[in-house]
Amino acid sequence: MRYFDGILNGLKNKLQVTVSLRFLLIVPFIIQVSLAVSLIGYISFINGQTTVNDLVTQLMNKTSGLVNQHLNSYLAVPTQLNQMNVDAVQAGILNLQNLEVSGKYLWRQMQIYANLGYSGYMLPNGQGAGTGNYTDRKLKTLEIFSVAVEGVSKIDSYAMDNEGNKSDLLYSYNYKGLEQSWYTNTVKAGHPIWSGVHPWSGAFNSGSIAASANYPVYNNNNELMAVFGVDLLLSNISNFLNDIHVSKNGVIFIIERNGLLVANSGDTYPYKFLNGQTDRLAATDSSDTLIQATANYLQQQLGNLEEIQSPQQILFDFQGNAEFVKITPWRDKLGLDWLVVFSVPESDFMAQIQANNRNTIFLCLGTVVVVFLIGIYTSARITKPILDLSAASELIADGNLNKSVDVQGIYELKTLGDSFNHMAQQLQESFTAFATVNQNLEKTNTKLEARTLELQDTIEELHQTQAQIVQSEKMSALGEMVAGIAHEINNPVNFIHGNVAHVEEYTHDLLSLTQLYQDYFPKPPEEITEKLNTIDFEFLQQDLTKVISSMKLGTTRIQQIVLSLRNFSRLDEAEVKAVDIHEGINSTLVILNHRIKSQPDGARIEVIKNYGDLPLIDCYAGQLNQVFMNLLNNAIDALEERDKLRSPDEIKANPSTITISTLHKNGWISIHIADNGFGIEQKDKSRVFNPFFTTKEVGRGTGLGLSISYQIVTQKHGGKLYFQSIPGEGTDFVIQVPVNRSQLNLRTKIN
């Protein structure tokens, strides 16, 4: 056993290597810095790659949703028009035998929908009427199929004046409508269908493609009366794809399952136009090289496009660059079956990250060089005084107790040198040495106590900073969510609100037309009379206008709520800006309206506004809105707690109220938010603005709202936030902020 111990001790002594202090100061420090910088650079690169992949996926998913939404709304127009026309025929409003009147009816529809190429109908005998949209001439014509012989219809095409009257006969031509696929396929199907995408060109068009939606209408004996058809121009889809801007060099295109283009972004057309004729174009033949390469890759890798039934995301190489591709199937219930393809170059997202990586490498190298130079300088400044102390120590060890050292430059080493000199002196004066040691201990204790107080202050500041960060993150997330929701709601509401006026106008026209029919034909056939009685036509006339008015009122209300949400979020107003305080208060009240209305036992909170004449003030609008939200939420919570403990009679006798008063005086704005709740108890008044203090039950409050509000008002706006509360009667919070921006900036700097 002793033998092995000897061997271990020998190895230990051999492994012990004496190194210089300068080496220990420079080399480990440089190694640590190099490892840290390298690790940070590597993590930055990996995070960049992950971020690009996540960003591309999110971008494609969001863009896919936008395209699908646009296709659903845009392609719904012809089917809705067909349904409306069939309903008009079945209701007896539209007489298909009167070609002139029916044609003018369709012509008026064409004035509203600019993207229609053609709208018309054909009777089983080849007669019919329609209206064409020739965009190059800005001309919408009326066409009458007045004569049909052996399946060949003679069509007269007329120009129309602004009043909807025929002005000039443009031309006449023969048309075998009963043999056309749009007519025969629809009759064969017996229900509404799309007859597919086809070229759209003519005497006054430079070329386009269109999708034809068709609808057969039958009488009560299930006999075919006519086939309605609407050609929808698809150029708007390409325009929409251009406006999306997926990336700098990315493209979006839509193809049918047979590979033919329907629409695409970019400067190229999804069709060929030559010698006055329009031809469909396959995606593999597109003049856009990225579209062509993507389509070729899809056919090579996926084979039959009919087999793509769910969204797929792939990556392929194009001209030495990686391309992200996403294919999303889109279908509708009437038979359209398309593929929406997105192709985005990885380089569009990696350019900045690669530049950042290069900058990171240069910064790492520069950091290592600077650290090396600083290490050399620092080691020289540290080792020289230590060597002097070492030499003096050797002299004292030899008996020279009068030796002292003079250390300058570094505070800690200077203190060490002074201590060394004191030690040498105290070796000669033992009693003085004990007194000096005690005195140093007392100084050390004093320093420790002072340091402890500083640490306590730092911890308190960290608590406040933590509270402010938590609340800021919550409000930032809330603002982003509110702005996103407001944006998403605003588009469909504007669409609905814009169309309600047209619906109201059409309803009035239809009711007027019905009244004219009743005036000229007071005794309609028995079948029509029964139908009128069945649907209670008189009630329908009265109630329809009320329903439309209610719809208009409802959409207006939604628009007001959306505006309030956007005003409250104010994500784009992070800097000081002149704002209307009343607008911020009203927006906050709209957001809290659901809490103000829905109280226990059917009671509700009454909000009383005593607004003064306020000027615009310079402030951080979003942060002040946060203060209003916190104070109003606390007031509502207090009133809800009080109403839970009261009977319905007590609530009725003394209803819950929140009174908001504003005043401008001597360059200051005062805002009072008062409630008639239980008030604040005397023992809690001194702790109201402390972080994490709350009187609410667990799970309902964090105690950060008033603390953050106090910092926003006092530190960010140089104002005051205080309250007056009488237990059992209520609480009045007062916000005072200056009007002038220079005053706000000055106070902010002081704080």
From TrEMBL:
GO terms for molecular function: ATP binding. Its main location: membrane. Residues 380-432 form the HAMP domain. Residues 484-741 form the Histidine kinase domain. Pfam families: HAMP (PF00672), HATPase_c (PF02518). Gene3D superfamilies: 1.10.287.130, 6.10.340.10, Histidine kinase-like ATPase, C-terminal domain (3.30.565.10), PAS domain (3.30.450.20). Residues 438-475 form a coiled coil. Its EC number is 2.7.13.3. The chain crosses the membrane at residues 21-45, 360-380. InterPro entries: HAMP_dom, HATPase_C_sf, HATPase_dom, His_kinase_dom, HisK_dim/P_dom, HisK_dim/P_sf, Sig_transdc_His_kin-like_C. SMART domains: HAMP, HATPase_c, HisKA. Signal peptide: none annotated. Keywords: ATP-binding, Coiled coil, Kinase, Membrane, Nucleotide-binding, Phosphoprotein, Transferase, Transmembrane, Transmembrane helix, Two-component regulatory system. It catalyses: ATP + protein L-histidine = ADP + protein N-phospho-L-histidine. It is an enzyme of class 2 (transferase). It comes from the Bacteria. It is found in: Membrane. This is histidine kinase. It comes from Okeanomitos corallinicola TIOX110.
